[in-house]
Write a structure and sequence with these properties.
Layout lengths: L13 E4 L3 E3 L1 E3 L4 E3 L3 E7 L7 E2 L1 E2 L5 E3 L6 H4 E4 L16 E9 L7 E7 L7 E3 L8 E3 L2 E2 L12 E10 L4 E2 L4 E6 L2 E7 L5 E7 L5 E2 L13 E2 L6 E9 L12 H5 L3 E5 L10 E5 L4 E3 L2 E2 L2 E2 L3 E5 L5
Parallel strand pairs: 3-14, 15-25, 15-28
Antiparallel strand pairs: 1-9, 2-8, 3-4, 5-6, 5-10, 7-8, 10-11, 12-13, 15-16, 15-19, 17-18, 17-22, 20-21, 22-23, 22-24, 23-28, 26-27
């Protein structure tokens, strides 16, 4: 970051105050920067007891000051020009930090993000690994909706309680993606109890071709009534068994999980790879047990353990 504050000690002295770390967060559901209600802290990797709280500026960027070990980078004094006081012109010592994000309003799930500081400009997040689109660099970090989040009007909703039948416990930190005709609609992350919600705009409404009567000119396609709209949504899941459900998920590790399989039946024979979504109705993904429906959705890793 390049924030400068001039302090006059004597007529010829200057003090430059640089910000070593800044990050902003993005809500894919509402397509907007989120700054209200978030509690963002950073600590040296491996030392969570030494925490520094970030402050959100008017642009929605969370900025950190006073990070341990970075005082000489933040504050530079002398009679030199502003350009010569630029901390990036000197040798810079980088330190590993963990950024911890929590939402006081219960809209988003907590997570950790490992970074190096000082960081020039805002934190760049590479949406690599499994998350779509892959290897996309952004100047914001995406947030994942919590199952307790209020649903914005006019949005499609997928819900599930994910269960690992082999581990015999809830499947925490599963990453789930929904696509329609190859286009990403939304993604979700399971909480410590395996609960997950995906919230996304409905796809383009289907059009119905109206057949002309004999002797009449062709008519334009009509739009099917919204209450009758239905889409076949493709699903992809990523999961690493053995994840500690009580640990705050590391965003990089979440996005690097391997492919997983969701199951339509408790016999683990029929894959749950797509689902029908109807306008105005929440869709719950569940595994069936014979003629009954279980309250959970079975999921297992597609890669056998070593």
């Amino acid at each position: 970051m390049g924030v400068e504050v001039e302090s006059i000690k004597e007529k010829s002295d200057r003090t430059l105050h640089a910000c070593p770390l800044g990050v902003r967060f993005w809500d894919d559901v509402l397509q907007t920067v989120i700054s209200d209600g978030l509690r963002v802290a950073a600590y040296p990797e491996g030392n969570p007891g030494v925490r520094t709280e970030a402050i959100s500026n008017p642009s929605g960027v969370f900025v950190f000051h006073g990070l341990p070990g970075l005082h000489s980078f933040e504050f530079r004094e002398g009679q030199k020009s502003w350009s010569d006081l630029d901390p990036w012109k000197a040798a810079v010592s980088f330190r590993p930090f963990c950024i911890e994000v929590r939402d006081n309003l219960r809209r988003f799930l907590p997570f950790l993000l490992k970074v190096q500081a000082p960081n020039k400009g805002m934190v760049i997040w590479t949406r690599g690994g499994t998350i779509s689109p892959p290897e996309r660099e952004t100047t914001f970090v995406s947030l994942f909706s919590a199952p307790t989040r209020s649903i914005p009007p006019g949005m499609a909703v997928l819900r599930a309680e994910l269960w690992d039948p082999k581990e015999k416990r809830p499947a925490a930190s599963v990453l789930l993606e929904a696509t329609f005709k190859g286009q990403l609609l939304g993604h979700g992350l399971a909480d410590e109890k395996g609960r997950i919600v995906l919230i996304f705009p409905y796809p383009e409404p289907a059009r119905l071709q109206i057949s002309p009567t004999p002797g009449s000119p062709p008519r334009n396609p009509g739009i099917v009534s919204l209450r009758d709209q239905e889409w076949r949504i493709e699903l992809r899941a990523f999961y690493k068994p053995g994840t500690n459900p009580n640990a705050t998920p590391d965003l990089t590790m979440v996005c690097d999980q391997t492919a997983a399989v969701m199951w339509r039946e408790e016999t683990l024979e029929n894959e749950f790879a797509d689902v029908s979504v109807r306008f105005g109705k929440e869709t719950v993904l569940q595994t069936s047990a014979g003629s009954e429906t279980l309250p959970v959705l079975y999921i297992t890793s597609a890669v056998p353990p070593p």
